[in-house]
Amino acid sequence: MISLQPDFCDIEIPEKEHYSIEDYSSSKARWCSGCGAHTILHSVQKLCTDEQLPPEKTVFVSGIGCSSRFPHYMKTYGFHGLHGRAFPVASGIKFRRPDLHVFVITGDGDCCSIGAGHWVHAIRYNMKMVVLLFDNSIYGLTKKQTSPTSPLGTHTNTHPTGSVLPPINPIQSTLGLANVSFVAQTVDWKPAHLNATLKKAYDHPGLAFVRIVQRCPIWMRENYEPTVKDPDAITVLNHENGIVLEENALKKFRHIQEHDPSNLVKAREVAELVKTTTPIGLFYQNKEAIRYDEYGAHNLGVPVEDRINAINSLMDKYAI
Ligand code: SF4
Q1: What is the pTM of this model?
Q2: Would you tell me which CATH number, out of the four given (3.40.50.970, 3.30.390.30, 3.40.50.2000, 3.90.1150.10), belongs to the domain 21-316?
């Protein structure tokens, strides 16, 4: 007889007294030199260290793409899955194991194209997890095909004369979804803002969606270099309930716009700024949005033992 044991996930692992950044670092990252993913990896490892997340209680789930190699470089649990399928895997993990710290790593192709259906419903389910959308506006792993966020007219291998459809705005799209509870944007080359955004996302009680504008110097250098080099190209969204930077860090930005992240209508207006500038900060937060993982934590009213007995009895039907 095949049998699941009710206590299969209750093994006690003694926790270390202190985790250093090395406790989260696995093999050497194999992204290209200058790729923005390196700084995001470092920032995430810093967050894990600052929050002292036990590695055996932390899991990174990814789909397919350059960014999705991320779990290999974390010394935590990881699941490098199928293209576009990070959200349902992460949702399943969180639903069954609400005690775990769950992170989703996805790219613009992974999230906004093949995984778009899962993106919509993950936002609506609002399970507590941090979602990092590494948006380089190109399919980098497969060597420069048009992605759903490629700017109009981008010359790629699939559109040699220039892409013909307007890009998806992931911030605007997410802000339009039912039960959305946290939407932020940052860039990989401003570490103070990146770190503060990750911390704010981690502290959010539901699903925190963070789009990170990410440099791909191999295939999209022309797309990012003007923003990286021009101090006027970024607008910081500022508010006491938003992503708060220290005064010295804030002073480095020339354009600062006050924005109250509790105002969803205004957040949608601010998301339109992407046509003229790169807005970074917290667009929207609602800590009271309904969380589906809270139903999972209560096992939908059915004790774990009863559910496992039901699965065992079903499996027995097919056992030889
Ligand atoms: Fe990074 Fe671009 Fe290289 Fe992929 S192709 S690893 S996104 S620089």
Answers
A1: 0.91
A2: 3.40.50.970
Distance CA 94, CA 100 (A): 7
C-alpha 31 – ligand 1 centre gap (Å): 6
Q: How confident is the model at residue 2 (pLDDT cuts 50, 70, 90)?
A: very low
Q: Closest Cα to atom 2, ligand 1: which residue?
A: 216
Q: What is the pLDDT of residues 114-128, one digit of tens each?
A: 999 999 999 999 999
Which among 28, 30, 31 is the best mutation to test ligand 1's pocket, defined by most ligand atoms within 8 Å of the CB? 31
Q: Which is the closest atom of ligand 1 to the Cα of 67?
A: 7
Ligand 1 lining (C-beta closer than 6 Å)? 31-32, 35, 37, 66, 136, 140, 216-219
Q: By CB neighbour count within 10 A (0-12 exposed, 13-18 middle, 19+ buried), where does 195 fall?
A: buried
Between 37-51 and 191-203, two packed helices, what is the crossing angle to 10 degrees?
50
Which of 32, 70, 145 to mutate to test ligand 1, by most ligand atoms within 8 A of the CB atom?
Answer: 32
Give the distance (Å) from ligand 1 centre to CA of residue 123: 27
Burial class of 176 by CB neighbour count within 10 A (0 to 12, 13 to 18, 19+)? middle
